[in-house]
Description:
Two copies of one chain form a homodimer. The first copy, chain A, has a five-stranded parallel sheet with strand order 14-4-3-18-27, covered by helices on one side. Chain A contains 15 helices and 27 strands. Chain A is globular. Chain A is an alpha/beta fold. Chains A and B meet through α1, α3, β8, α4 and α5 of A and α1, α3, β8, α4 and α5 of B.
Amino acid sequence: MEQQRSVTADGEVLTRRRFFEGLAxxxxxxxxxxxxxxxxxxxxxxQAAPPSLTxxxxxxxxxxxxxxxAGMTAAYxxxxxxxxxxxxxxxxxxxxxxQTARKGFQHTDLIGHSQTCDFDDGLYINHGPWRIxxxxxxxxxxxxxxGVPLESFVNDNDAAYVxxxxxxxxxxxxxxRKGQIAADARGHAAELIAKVASKGDLDAALSPADRDxxxxxMINEGRLSPKDLAYTGTDGRGFAVHPGAxxxxxxxxxxxxxxxxDVLDSNAWRVLSSVAGYEQQRTMLQPIGGMDQIAKGFEKQxxxxxxxxTSVEKxxxxxxGVTVSFRDAAGKVGEIQADYCVCTIPISVLKNIDLxxxxxxxxxxxxxxxxxxxxxxxxxxxxFWEEDHFIYGGHIxxxxxxxxxxxxxxTGWQGQKGVLLGYYAFxxxxxxxxxxxxxxxxxxxxAAGQKVFPEYADSFETAFSFSWHLAKENLGxxxxxxxxxxxxxxPVLCQPDGRLYLAGEHLSYLGGWQAGAIESAWQQIGKLHxxxxxx
Amino acid sequence: MEQQRSVTADGEVLTRRRFFEGLAxxxxxxxxxxxxxxxxxxxxxxQAAPPSLTxxxxxxxxxxxxxxxAGMTAAYxxxxxxxxxxxxxxxxxxxxxxQTARKGFQHTDLIGHSQTCDFDDGLYINHGPWRIxxxxxxxxxxxxxxGVPLESFVNDNDAAYVxxxxxxxxxxxxxxRKGQIAADARGHAAELIAKVASKGDLDAALSPADRDxxxxxMINEGRLSPKDLAYTGTDGRGFAVHPGAxxxxxxxxxxxxxxxxDVLDSNAWRVLSSVAGYEQQRTMLQPIGGMDQIAKGFEKQxxxxxxxxTSVEKxxxxxxGVTVSFRDAAGKVGEIQADYCVCTIPISVLKNIDLxxxxxxxxxxxxxxxxxxxxxxxxxxxxFWEEDHFIYGGHIxxxxxxxxxxxxxxTGWQGQKGVLLGYYAFxxxxxxxxxxxxxxxxxxxxAAGQKVFPEYADSFETAFSFSWHLAKENLGxxxxxxxxxxxxxxPVLCQPDGRLYLAGEHLSYLGGWQAGAIESAWQQIGKLHxxxxxx
Lengths: 535, 535
């Protein structure tokens, strides 16, 4: 669910890098590291396969709390190893945050706003996790195992617009193609440094032989004229008249680059960096038909063990076992006894459950907070972004408060209708927007998108919005650790308390990613199994 | 079919940019422009929709030579407008260069080498055109019209290897991830220039206010430390130990950047530029199941008009019509009479046909040459590039002579087997490789790939290779115009000669692209129709 850019209160686009700079200014390097941990920046999957649970389960019963990816991973692997598992799930369906909203999907938030998704058949929004980095091998382990078909997720699109209304100069508040900003910012910068280098002014840093290679690199990078090292534009920024057949349009006409000053003033260069953050790199993938295909893949394996619509009220431990008290949808209470408990309930929710753990463990649970996160899917009656703007997928980076990014769908190319992501925002601005009614949220998102695409409002049909901090089973999008929390609380929660093992993205450095949930489950059941073997 | 990089005789990777530099050194700017035309560099589609052919066909008969995309486009649009069309096609199937090799596909080249494709069911190689830029609206017009489902083509992959064996230093001959080269080359360069700028040494070029923004941009671009403007690596280049769950691996360990000297020596920076060439930009698309789905889409519409396996031997004109003499597969000769002829036969082949045209027109036909182009599909019994290297699609840029690029498939993610593109090369090295037997070509391609992937040779099962200059219906991959040809010959061939209209990618500035064929056909039938209206 992670996203690479957020927006500060004054509307400045906050890349994670800049966020870390802010942390650095505030608390030095170690705080920066903790911040990087908290946002899961650049994290890749460490484990490619589940632990090998050999030696038998010795008749051990495990009760698992939560049928999200962590809980179902634990159930699937433990069952394969011979354990008797039961899962309690508060929702009427499995998957946890791995959800997809399509026609008929219902949600009532903590404010009391009820929505039933009314998208056309075949259309959907992944309002939870929505993309899989190529290096999240744990997630990809299960998509392969369960035969969940994947397609590419377009996470970077040269043709997509960048829209910065809070910059200055003539480019502020104008949708500009990302490729044009890349061509012009890097082209002008390459010209500056190539000229400096060719005059010998970098010779303290470069040997003469390196200097020649460096200038050659800059010519290549910036598409400079090798004669005078000037940047005067490139086909990569598009054409004033597109080339075509015959003699008219024939070769077409080149486009004129933006001046370096205009590019710098616009702030649009903030979308450029040497290489994408590791977790945002190409190639990213998504399940065909919606992210919940992964949840359904797991559910096919462990669905029979799940007790749905069942909320945990109390967890009691004894020297020999665990007793979980629950209440079902009809208000009926009950108990399950087991030898061990794997608890994947988000700590935001777990804090409010009567939990029989040690005082240090309980104290550690207050060392983490959860991120407010909003998403909204907007069904458009026409794929105007493809038809009129030739944009196939990717993000519209912008500095509109409360919007984060607008993202165009990576599926259903050239279809009639489409559902785009109208906002993906976290933090304070997300809280403000989530206080609106669903209709007001849609109006807010449509008004923002209209600034980028003139067809937006006319094409809008129906919306489905979701605020993770207002979902009572989550109370936030993902765990956020500060430096003290990672240092003091996190290691405590990674260890079992008695017969209770926590698991989930919150106990990983892959925060907010499905891989974090899966790998945490792998790690915790590995510990549990080792203990059973020793017992 | 265009590709962005070729290789010189001495094995240096020749980006198009560098190729143009060579031309510039040789003949100045106008030769560069002609060279850019010849390679179709940066060309985008100019026409989004076919011409409107209103006013009736007045009983006009048109004979169309060639059932490639140009010919079938002409037949489809003219028929819709009321014309009576017939198509003669030398091959036993429609599509021209829009071909896909799958199990049972047969080809015998001019040397006499016969191959029958033996890929497993469901696997294929697009040995002709293989990707559609998002701005080729003409091609996308027909995929939408004919309901040809599309998927993303991964044309740029941060995780894909770059392999330069002819560089120097410790990185030469080592597969390196493209993202690592991007992070390190740009990071080190950004450090150099940010330091120069912050000392005020660029103040002639930048105002003090611009200087601050410029340094901020460089910090963002190069992921520099804001404190001392140093580049010390970034998560974008990957990790020494990947982050994961719990405390071990927990946050993981960062990776150490390559030195700037090593990066410069390696030549791997040649793969970097400010933005991809326009025709290579994201998002690119491909038909699900093979490029020939486009040909089949057309064939469904115009197949009944096609006379297959029929070679044109002579085209005779009179003041009132055209007579085309042909020979079919059984050796039977025949004639077709029509009011007009649209001829889409590549000029390389047309030169050898008895064509009744004016002397200037005939002379103009010698103003164009055709590119030698090779492709080979290699079926691998295991998708080791995904399983072991976590590379999902994209190109392996390299400087191995005769290889061009190796490209991993953008479809069938996580399947068991896959067909990768073992080489895509043009020019003199391609001619050399095409002289080998099919088995030798496969061995050549496998030996090259083995240098990048240790699993290559062990995984190889079967190959299918194709050399367009050895296909008797093509005699080359695409038309190549030099400056004189574009100036003197091209405009002549764009005009009708009597009742004969040429059409095809060769009469466009979208050389080698399907869009060039389609838009040329649109343009020429527009002229033909205007003439019929005036008659």
